[in-house]
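Collaborator request, handled under Task 6.
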Amino acid sequence: MTDPGYAAPEPPSQRRARFVVAAGFVVLGLWILHDFLPALAWAVVLSIALWPVYQHLLRLLPERSGRIIAPLLLTLAVGIVFVTPLVLLGIAIARESHILIQLIIAARHNGLAVPQWINDLPIVGPTLADWWRTNLSDPVMAEALFGRLSPRMFAESAREYGGEAARRLVIFLFTLLTMFFLFRDGSVVAGQLRALSDRVLGERGEGIGRHMIDAVHGTVNGLVLVGLAEGVVIGVVYVVAGLPYPATVAAMTGVLAVIPFGAPLIYTLAALYMLTIGKTLGAVIVFAGGSIVVFVADHFIRPAIIGGTARLPFLWVLMGLLGGLETLGFIGLFLGPAIMAALISLWRDWTGAPQPAAAPAPQRARRAARSGAIRPRRT
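Structure tokens returned to the collaborator:
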């Protein structure tokens, strides 16, 4: 008599068919969501980076309402931090756009006079001034250069960019919505991912996932915090050099410093501006000081922070950052090191190379309890 609890072994053909069907549905789902994949990636990265903040916020709020209020507050805070600068920038552009239009109309009829600062430039000043008078001060040449620019063209461009901005806004709202549910149900999702990794990769899967999470945390610290620190230090250089509005320019430098090699764009423009107003020594101080700060930060501090947290060699950190930026865009700065961490972990596992020393047991226990992502196994 057959045991009712006995399950017949699954035929190999049925397993293969189930795998093919599952793979097909995965590919179909990715195809349907391909426009939202960057939003999902950003939501995952931001949720991992802000998970300690979310856990701290949960401890401050009542237990019953905290599960809804905490993710809602943190999601709204992220939205305000990202949206407010863009709104202020859009208002400033809309307010000053009429000045640009009037300048173009005047240039088409009368040409553009040579600015005095061009004449004051050393070595190249006279050559640039002659070119300006030939090509921009002559109304005929100015009409040929600016003839295609008209208020109607600006209006059409505004509609085109406005539509693209609206699309980006929808994707950003989807990112915030995904973040809310990741914060609210993050512990459940982490448990499900751990169960999946145990089935697919065995006990090593949890270690790979932990290395990827450490890489995301290290990348956030190495890019965002070090970038803001670059802005502060270079801001001191701006003050010493006598640059006008040093605080505003330092803030722009700190924001662009999040991207590797992005800060040089701002401090180079600042140095050129100081050169045009006749402050040659200040321009040299700004360019040399900014170059030294960025060189030290991008080649030593950032790789040490990211590689130390994720236990990655320097070369793999640099390739993960630059390769991720080239392949995936800005989100690749955070996903690149995480993928490199997974590859290095798999390599060490498959080749039998010694894994890096993990955190002490009490520290791991405290981190797991704080994150809620790793729970003890039930026996």
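The cover message to the collaborator said: "Residues 359-379 have pLDDT under 50 and may be disordered. Residues 88 and 94 are 10 Å apart (CA to CA). Please let us know whether this matches your experimental observations."
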